[in-house]
Amino acid sequence: MTKILMVCLGNICRSPLAHGILESKLSSDKFTVDSAGTGDYHIGQLPDHRSIATAKANGIDISGQRCRQFERSDFDTYDIIYVMDHSNYDNVVKLARNSDDISKVQLILKYVSSSSQEVPDPYWGTSEDFDEVFTLLNDACENIAKNLTQ
After folding, report:
1. How many CA atoms lie within 13 A of 119 on its CB side?
2. How many separate helices (H) and strands (E) can be counted in the chain?
3. For this UniProt entry, which residues form the secretion signal (predicted)?
């Protein structure tokens, strides 16, 4: 079983969406997807209501997710760690113990032809910003799923 972790700052906007999107594209027999945040701001909380609504509008239910903080032990648990931006990358890599840990961490948008390698944080934005993030993540997750299942 391949275990995949999605990481953003607070684990309430971007990574819960990425978690739900990729999970919907992969077989649960072969893949496990989870999410976490680099910060401890929202531990135990539901994803942001706008993330839940955006996912629901696209046929994905993320309302069962709960926010948690990324831990060093996640390097032992997960095979691949996708981060939403360079700040998340830096924060995760700071916890790495060795080059094997670092090799698991990737920017999620490396899988799409986007003008940026960073998924914008929609937290302070509008519902349209969440829709834009969903589209970016859906494109990335589609390509990731294809690569993983070939």
Report:
1. 36
2. 6, 4
3. none
Q: pLDDT tens across 1-14, in order?
A: 999 999 999 999 99
The catalytic residue among 13, 48, 121, 141 is: 121
Give catalytic status of residue 67 as yes or no: no
Out of 14, 48, 85, 141, the active site residue is 14
Q: Which of 8, 13, 67, 141 is catalytic?
A: 8
CA distance 104 to 97: 12
For the domain 2-149, what is the CATH code?
3.40.50.2300
pTM over 0.90: yes
Three-state secondary-structure class, residue 139? helix
- Is residue 113 very low, low, confident or very high in pLDDT (cuts 50, 70, 90)? confident
Domain range summary for the chain, segments of one domain joined by + = 2-149
